Structure formats: structure tokens, C-alpha cells
Amino acid sequence: MRVGKLKNKNMGQMDYGIFYCVILLLAIGVVMVYSASSYYAMFKNNDSMYFLKKQLLFAVLGIIVLCITMSIDYHKLKQYTALMMIACIPLLLLVFLFQGVNGAQRWITLGPLSFQPSELTKYVVVFFLAKSIEAKGDGIKKFSTGIVPYLVVSGIYAALVLAEKNLSIASVIMIVTFIVLFSAGGRLKHLFGIVAPLMIAAATVFTLGEGYRRARMLNFLNPWKDPTGNGYQLIQSFYSLGAGGITGLGLGQSRQKTLYMPEPHNDFIFAIIGEELGLIGCMFIITLFIIFIWRGIKVAMKAKDSYGTLLAIGITSVIAVQSLINIAVVTGSMPVTGVPLPFISYGGTSLVINMAAMGVLLNISRQAEGKADN
């Protein structure tokens, strides 16, 4: 496939490393959503291609959105930051008017369509941080006026997301905020001496404070203690990864997707990838994420202003943190929590918004200082 150079009088070449990584991950996601969901979809919806058709539609829409945001000067987005910040609040509150799913109220549902405001919020917070920190400049080095205000603002949005029973995305918001503050030049003694311990303490309190989260934590340490309850999904994930071995059972040959793994096309799709494509397939996907993160950091370093640098760091960090958490959960390296694997897990809101953010990241790369070494 040949991609045009997408040049105009103000913009240069996009970062092809990021572009091809995203497209490859997207293509793998569409194929694996079909493979992982076919049996479940036939049983539940009487159509083995039910989730494939929806994910394919989301993928096409995501590519269109990426092309649009990639062609818009990212500086123009500054003027809409306050509006987006304000809009996210009623959207996050609106979810409580709709029926929850599995005890969580995260979606605004209108007929066959659903929208998850928290997926938009995590990027809106990044836009706010980039804009505000650029304006603050060296003021970021002061704790009370440089660090605390951003923790408070991000904390408010994280708290609204947490109220939806979505600790995972709330954690992503706060972790990404920490990364951006560190990258912006916040003092190490403030970030690691005060902020990091407070964030760890808060995460511990919120995890142990809810009965179902506490049960997940205890079962993470020994999932076989409750193999038919809280430990069930993680045990099925272990079976999937173990059965796949080095080379996998073959595409479409997963046994755990045949109603053993709950909703295998969602957060635990990486386990099905491990079963069907083996360690080789898993390492290929992890390598794509590593390349993406590396290229994202390079884009941030070459951005022509601090706003572009912080925006690129924030966008890259969202994908990095989410992919790390998802893979850690699936492999039993941390307690089970509902974080989708970017570009791969089933979900329209997450996919389309992630693709829009990738377009912004590519636009930053097109305006980088010097000639891009793609």
C-alpha cells in the first residue's frame, strides 16, 4: 500500500512508523475480533459475523476520522479545549440515566448505538494539560501553583469516571497526568516525593474500599481459590495462553472462545491471540506497541513547540498505559480490571476516539522541526 505524502505549504511528511503501526494493529484487531467473537456471536446473536460487521464499520469510520484530524492544524484545537472540558462533565453524568452493564454505568445508549464518555475524557484531559502547562511555563516547578492545580482538575474528572465504577480509566487519567507533569519539568521531589505516594495510597484505598475490587485483588494473588467466581476469567486466560505455546493453535482454533472465556472479543482478546497465534503473535503485537511508543516519543521531541511536545507525550502515554495494563491483566501480572487493548479489543467508542487522537499525533509529526526520518 502506498500512502501519499500529504504535503501542503505548511505541513511536511507524517511519521510513517506511527501510521503503519496503527494500521497493522487495527487490521489485526478486526481479524481477531471476528476470530474471538464468532462462536459467542452465533450463540448470542445467531450471526457469527455480528461483531465483525460492527468492528469493521468502526474501523472504517476510525480511518476517516484519523484522516480528518491529521489534516487539521493541532494548534486550532486549543480554542476548543475549554468547550470540550465543559462538555465532558454532563456527558459523564448522563451515563447514570441509563441502565448499567455488569454493575457499571459507563455508557450512553441510544437504540443500537452507545457512547462511552470516559474514552473521550482521557484525551480531553491531555489537551487541557498541554495547553495550560505551555501557558504556565516554568511555573510548573512550584508545587502549590504548578502541580496541585493539575492534580485537582484531573482528579475531578477521574472521580467522575470512578463514580461510573471505572477505576481502570480513572487510573489511566491520573497516571498520564503524572507522566505529562514529569515531562513538562515538574520537580522530582514533588512528583516522586509527594504525588506518587499519594496516588499509590489513593489507588490502594479505592481498590480495597469496594468489596468486588477487594475480591479481585485477593483472587489475583490466587485465582484458583475461587475458580468459578472472581478467579474464573483469569484462569481461562491462563489456559488460553498456555494452550497457544510458541506458535499457537492456528487462527480460528481457540477452544477458550467457545463460551469458556466470557466475551472473549473484549478486554481479554489478548489471551485468545496467545492461544491462536502463540507467543510469536503476542510478541509481534507487543513489538508494534513498543515501536509506536518509540515513534511517539520521537514526535514529541521534534515538535515545534511545547504544546505539541506535551500533547504528543500525553496521547502516546494513553496508548502506552492502556496497552501495558491490558497485557499485564491478561497475563496475571496485576489484578483484573476492565481496560481494552487499544485498536484491538472490540468497541466503537474506544476505537474511533483512539484513531482521532492518532490523527492529532500524526499532525504534530507533520509539523515537526527538521526533516522527519521515516
TrEMBL record:
Main location, first listed in the record: membrane
Pathway: Cell wall biogenesis; peptidoglycan biosynthesis
Domain of life, source organism: Bacteria
Alphabetic keyword roster: Cell cycle, Cell division, Cell membrane, Cell shape, Cell wall biogenesis/degradation, Glycosyltransferase, Membrane, Peptidoglycan synthesis, Transferase, Transmembrane, Transmembrane helix
Entry-linked Pfam families: FTSW_RODA_SPOVE (PF01098)
InterPro entries named in the record: FtsW (IPR013437), FtsW/RodA (IPR001182), SpoVE (IPR013438)
Reactions this protein catalyses: [GlcNAc-(1->4)-Mur2Ac(oyl-L-Ala-gamma-D-Glu-L-Lys-D-Ala-D-Ala)](n)-di-trans,octa-cis-undecaprenyl diphosphate + beta-D-GlcNAc-(1->4)-Mur2Ac(oyl-L-Ala-gamma-D-Glu-L-Lys-D-Ala-D-Ala)-di-trans,octa-cis-undecaprenyl diphosphate = [GlcNAc-(1->4)-Mur2Ac(oyl-L-Ala-gamma-D-Glu-L-Lys-D-Ala-D-Ala)](n+1)-di-trans,octa-cis-undecaprenyl diphosphate + di-trans,octa-cis-undecaprenyl diphosphate + H(+)
A single GO cellular-component term on record: cell division site
Enzyme class: transferase
Residues that span the membrane, as ranges: 16-36, 56-74, 81-101, 142-161, 167-184, 191-209, 268-294, 306-331, 343-364
The EC number(s) this enzyme carries: 2.4.99.28
Position of the signal peptide: none
GO MF annotation terms: lipid-linked peptidoglycan transporter activity; peptidoglycan glycosyltransferase activity
The name this protein goes by in its record: Probable peptidoglycan glycosyltransferase FtsW
Lineage: Bacteria, Bacillati, Bacillota, Clostridia, Eubacteriales
